Amino acid sequence: MRIVAEHLSYTYNPGSPFASAALRDVSLTIEEGEFFGIIGHTGSGKSTFVQHLNGLLRLPSSQKHYRPKRLKKGQAPPPATVLTVGDFDLTDKKTNFRALRKSVGMVFQYPEYQLFAETVRDDVAFGLKNFSKEKLSDAAIDEAVRAAVEVVGLDYEELKDKSPFELSGGQKRRVAIAGVIVTRPEVLVLDEPAAGLDPLGKREVMELLHKLHREWCKTVVIVSHDMDEISENCTRAAVFADGTVRYVLPPRELFRHAQELTELGLDVPLTAKLTALLQEDGIVVDSDFTTADFCEKVLALWKKRKEGAQ
Amino acid sequence: MKAIEFEDVSFRYEEEGPFAVRHLNFSVDEGEFVAVLGHNGSGKSTLARLCNGLLTPDEGRIRVFGTLVGDKNLYDVRRNVGVVFQNPDNQTVATIVEDDVAFGAENVGLPREEIGKRIDFALRAVGMEQYRSSAVARLSGGQKQRVAIAGVLALKPRIVILDESTAMLDPRGRREIVDVVTRLNKEEKITVLLITHFMEEALLADRAVVMNRGELVMEGTPRSIFERKDELVTYNLALPRIGVICETLRAGGMQVNYTLDAAALAKEIAECVS
Predict the structure, then answer these.
(1) CB spacing of A170 vs B263 below 8 angstroms
(2) Which of A209, A267, B52, B229 could form an S-S bond across to B81 if both were Cys, CB 3.0 to 4.6 Å?
């Protein structure tokens, strides 16, 4: 499912003294099959954007049809807002948001805080039961839950009757993710999926997301503060600042703008920092900013110079 | 003087359960800045909770500034040892910043004027003076954590323990906390125990220790710890990224010195390739 947003604006508490514009005229397209990154510091509008993708935030009904009553002569009407996810038109009130939410899975920050059921099986099955129109048979639920628990790398037989609160932190997070993907969403959106984990846990979660991207959900969107995570994993990334989208680029092009990103108060991957520092000395390292490629390119430069010296 | 001393301390959460901390011998000098590393479940947080009597050891002894931590002096110990936890939203009790900072000081029964002074001092120390009358709920995560630190500072503790206090913050919030803590250590001479997953943060400490399965397995300057790469990996920890780059270049034959500073590494690379 392709995600298209055009001229999307959103204001919290409109018309009150607390009104704050979280999104201003955002246009952004995420293609089917991408592993897309969303970057921006706190308050940049990235969460507001992401919450539109499965209709948690909806366009005020006035917005789509908004037209100034009297246009000045020669004044063009404001462009219409477009927001579609696959065939779902999110600007249309009649859209089946229940079906949309089944297709767009949303994993919030620290999803393990949302575990609540008495057993792992019940917790993972919760969304599945809620989304299906007819009553599912126990066997069908078991089968779907087993598949979801196993794809996140846990042993179903061992865990199904355990309380999710007895599990380790990493296991809890996996169970929480299983509870979202159990409905087989086509798009999986995750807010800071690796936050708060130790380095090994972080790596495991990212590996899990790649596995899900290959086998389970066509499109994966992650919100992350960790630029290394973005440069190592994403096909493209969008940079949010002050409610607007500043860049939408593949990491290898995005992090060439190291200085502009720093000015926006964002970090850049270490490889981009080193590349910028080397550039000051007139050394050009043309890498895709992953650690492996950066080292390879530096070593290639070094070998070339060594051969030149001989 | 030793700020904290652990003497052969063991602790487990359940009888017959596994030990969360096993025969731990460990000490922190007054004024020292120590980073504690270790994977999830290695016993780091248990260590923090033992330090101020939130947990009592099953075996062994813990001393804080020479005083044995026990049931009778728990409140004195806690005035000396402030702990800031992970989740900024779980640590505020009042709706307004100054009330929140005053909470601890009010509880120990300080006189009114003294509390006012303590609030001034604590908010200044964390750089939040201008938010004195703000609503806590409207602050960012980093600002909330700074208020939590201020609440601890209002009791004028000699030791501050940060138990993954930066884990839930964005990079900017993380920098704010790390700056505040470094300054408290340097200027106010407060002893700091920083428990963290972020290898980069550990680099700021005077000394780093690594926990694994409840035992203290590595100890030294952060730099010396990160030089023992193979060992770190066996404890499920990773090098900071800069260490990975150094290692990879060296493995490829380039003679760069092992460094954990980006500018220094860029210089090393520049010398090799130009």
Answers:
(1) no
(2) B52
The superfamily in CATH containing domain A3-268 is P-loop containing nucleotide triphosphate hydrolases (3.40.50.300)
Domain boundaries, chain B: 2-239
- Chain B contact for A45, CB < 8 A? no
Give yes or no for B238 touching A (CB within 8 A).
yes
Whether residue B253 and residue A299 make contact (CB cut-off 8 A), yes or no, is yes
CA dihedral B5, B8, B14, B20 (to 10 degrees): 70
Nearest to A199 among B41, B237, B262 (CB): B237
Q: Per-residue pLDDT tens for A128-150?
A: 998 888 888 889 999 999 999 99
Q: Searching chain A, which residue's CA lies closest to the CA of residue B235?
A: A200
For the B2-239 domain, the top CATH level (class) is alpha beta
> Which residues of chain A are in CATH 3.40.50.300 domains?
3-268
Q: Find where tokens 């798009």 sit.
A: A187
| Neighbouring residues of A300: CB distance < 8 A, sequence distance ≥ 6 | none
ipTM above 0.85, yes or no: no
Could B172 and A110 be called an inter-chain contact, meaning their C-beta atoms sit closer than 8 Å? no
Residue A272 has pLDDT above 90, yes or no: yes
Instruction: Find the closest chain B residue to A268 by CA distance.
Output: B171
Are the beta carbons of B261 and B272 closer than 8 angstroms?
no
